[in-house]
Structure formats: structure tokens, C-alpha cells
Amino acid sequence: xxxxxxxxxxxxxxxxxxxxxxxxxxxxxxxxxxxxxxxxxxxxxxxxxxxxxxxxxxxxxxxxxxxxxxxxxxxxxxxxxxxxxxxxxxxxxxxxxxxxxxxxxxxxxxxxxxxxxxxxxxxxxxxxxxxxxxxxxxxxxxxxxxxxxxxxxxxxxxxxxxxxxxxxxxxxxxxxxxxxxxxxxxxxxxxxxxxxxxxxxxxxxxxxxxxxxxxxxxxxxxxxxxxxxxxxxxxxxxxxxxxxxxxxxxxxxxxxxxxxxxxxxxxxxxxxxxxx
Length: 276
Fold this sequence. Notes:
The chain is mainly alpha-helical. It has a domain at 50-177: Helix Hairpins (Orthogonal Bundle). It is 80% helix and 4% strand. It contains seven helices and four strands. The chain has helices at residues 2-22, 26-50, 53-106, 112-194, 198-210, 234-242, 259-274, and strands at 217-221, 224-225, 247-248, 255-257. Strand 1 (217-221) and strand 2 form a beta hairpin. Helix 3 packs antiparallel against helix 4. The longest helix is centred in the middle third of the chain and has 83 residues, at 112-194. It is rod-shaped. The two termini are 58 Å apart. Mean pLDDT is 88; it is low at 1-21.
């Protein structure tokens, strides 16, 4: 019986020890949350440096693809016009052959009725020639217009391609400068996030998503929450400085920390960032 209890006691001690290890103070939570904010804000800065570049590159690529398609269509139209000109030239050639045959027939006509019939056929072929020649002229005008459009489009396309190359180079340069830091910071962000309970993380992300600058936790500055003009009562400031509970700004909803804690964490995290 006694041996049984002796075996159980160490297990209970281990469980108790683990429970205490997993318990962290409000101050530790605030520090971890503020560290996460500093890291996430730095990631925001890196992404802001890129700005709209990725979207600009994508838009230019789509625009160039559209212009290429248009050029292909215009080139296909030119081919169709060339084919139409050949067909009309064939019509003229066939009509001239028939007119030559009618000229021979006219030499051997036997009556006025036959003569008039041949003359009408000859006149019809002359009209076919005139119509085909007119179509050829119109097609040549269209070809010149299309060629002019193609020329202008090619010039615009060259400008767009040069612009795209410049934007891609700019984006690649920024990516090379910041990719390593961003990758490291994202890993650190996940690491700090894992230290904070899910309820706090959910609140943090909700606040971050609802404000333009992404600041969900801010220090007290000159008696007001960072970025706000609304003064925080001295009693509330004392509670924030005590770090005994998590307090939010009643106006912005942001989580508040005292300036001293914020300065300490800024120094620690900025040192870490510099060493990346």
C-alpha cells in the first residue's frame, strides 16, 4: 500500500510542475503581445516598401498580354485582307479572260440578238472588274490603316515592356533586400504568437484588422494611448503600469501598455532585428 503511494507521488509532482510552468503572468503576456506587435509592424513596413509594386507588375503583365492578343488579331486581319485582294485579282483575271473570249465571239456573230447577248456579258465582266478594283483599293486603304495601328501598338508595347522590366527589377531588388528579414520575422511572429493564449491572439488580430496602421497594442504617451488625443485617467494609467490586468482603450479598443515596458521591448526586439 505504501509502495503504491510512493510511486504515485513523483507523477503528481511532475504534473504540478508542468502546470506552474505553463502559467504565465499578465505582464509576460503583455510583453509577448507587444513583442509580437513590434515584429508584425516591421513586417508591415517591409510590405509597405513594396507598396503596389506586385500589383503594378501583374497589371502590366496582363496589359501586355492583352496588347499581344490584339496584335495577333490585327496580323490575322492583314492576312485576311491579303487573301481578299488575291481573290479579287483572280476575279479580274477571270473577267479579262472572258472578255477576250467574248471579243473572239463578236467576230463570228450571226445576228443582232447574239451580238447584244455577248455585249451584255462583256459589260457585266467589265463591271465585275471595276467592282473588284474598287474592293482592292478599299482593302489596300484598310491594310495601311491596320499597319499604322500595328506600328503604334508596337511602340506602346515596347514602352510597356520596358516599364515592366524596370518594375520587375525594382521589385526583385526590394525582395532581395527584405526577403531574408521578412522570412525570419514571420518565423518569429509565429513563435511569439504561440506563447500567447488563443483568446488574446484572436482579440489582437481583430483589432489589427480594424485599424489602418495595424497597431493593436500601444503604449501610453503623454497621458494618452499612442496615436490618440483622448487622455487616460491617472487611476487607469496606474493600473496599466501595475501590469496586473489587460486594459483596452475605451475609444480605439487597442490594448494598452505603459511606456517603460514598451521601451524595454522596443530595445530588445530592435536588437534582434538588427542581428538578422
